[in-house]
Amino acid sequence: FQAFKKSKEVMQRFVRAYQLMLRFYGIILINQETGELKRAENWAERFQNLNRFGHNNLRITRILKCLGEMGYEHYQVHLVKFFLTETLVKGTLPNVKSSALDYFLFTIRSRRKRRELVHYAWQHFKPRDRFVWGPHDKLLKYR
């Protein structure tokens, strides 16, 4: 991975490949610097595909791990938060929820960012007393 990361061309291709996969899932990378995402115009159609075919969740987990390996941890955070928002807040991806909580969250390399996302998930999870991805006493005190 180190040789790949040193090549500007490889890294540009990597980001283009990431954008291609995002579009397949109905997501657009709106800021290459920060990794900020939004729904694509065809999001409803693409989300139907995500809800119907669970094998996509395995691909998303691999994408997230690869983002971390290639030095795009900030992209990981935005993608995981995007899926947490769509599953827990907006309810558009109910069949992705368990993968988002069980796998996507724990691909985040930064302990601090992972804690922030676990707290975000806990805040939006219903019913809250069934949340098993972090200790409730610590989540209550988290700032």
TrEMBL record:
GO cellular component labels: membrane
InterPro entries recorded: OGF_rcpt, OGFr
Alphabetized GO MF terms: opioid growth factor receptor activity
Coiled coil location: none
Superkingdom as given in the UniProt entry: Eukaryota
Opioid growth factor receptor (OGFr) conserved domain location: 2-139
Pfam families associated with the record: OGFr_N
Assigned protein family: Belongs to the opioid growth factor receptor family.
Name of the protein in its database record: OGFR factor
Source species of the chain: Atlantisia rogersi (Inaccessible Island rail)
